[in-house]
Write a structure and sequence with these properties.
193 residues, alpha/beta, Rossmann fold, eight-stranded mixed beta sheet, 7 helices
Length: 193
């Protein structure tokens, strides 16, 4: 699942993998893959739950990833932020177990605010479940190109907004050739939406 969330980084040329913002850092799983795909990138992870950050530091070696951890509410962060990123990954859910869902501020105004943090030519990635149709409509209004990544045996839909040239075929090929993601390529499905 986290491989699919970070995989869109590969659509950007190496020179465009300089900065990544992760909204909903959690235990750092997406950050770990992002770091492997963009070893020199400045990565900022925003997580509102201090207990989650403490657990990630203690049990999942979060501090070894060399990322800037911001303990803050993602919506408040987006409203104040001015910095732009080559990649913004939104992985925010509330609730527990099968009852997880996006907070009321996603997709709107959250994805609009997140898109403002995306540098020209960059991408915005959103992890959605039941909200996928609304997220797709919102991304289409914000970006000229949109992709959907499905993961076998998961309800999640990874949705990507970016440049018009965004291509599921190109991303599929990049994942298949990536030493980091190659093993996951058989479980991922890519298509334009």
């Amino acid at each position: 699942m986290w491989d699919a969330l970070a995989a869109p980084i590969l659509v950007l040329p190496q020179a465009r993998r300089r900065s990544i913002l992760i909204l909903g850092l959690g235990g750092g799983s997406a950050a770990r893959i992002a770091r492997a795909l963009a070893p020199r990138a400045a990565i900022v992870g925003v997580e509102r739950d201090a207990d989650v950050v403490r657990a990630a530091r203690r049990w999942f070696d979060l501090d070894q990833l060399g990322i800037e951890v911001v303990e803050h509410d993602a919506l408040a962060y987006l409203r104040r932020a001015r910095r732009q990123f080559d990649v913004v990954i939104e992985d925010i859910f509330v609730g527990r177990g099968r009852g997880v869902h996006k907070p009321d501020w996603l997709p709107d105004p959250g994805l609009t605010l997140a898109a403002r943090r995306v540098a020209h030519g960059g991408i915005l990635v959103s992890n959605a479940i039941d909200e996928a149709p609304q997220v797709v409509r919102h991304l289409r209004g914000l970006f000229p190109g949109t992709l959907r990544i499905d993961v076998d045996d998961y309800d999640n839909r990874i949705l990507v907004g970016g440049p018009a040239l965004l291509s599921g075929r190109a991303l599929r090929a990049a994942v298949a050739h990536s030493p980091v993601l190659r093993e996951s390529s058989a479980t991922l499905r890519f298509r334009r939406v």
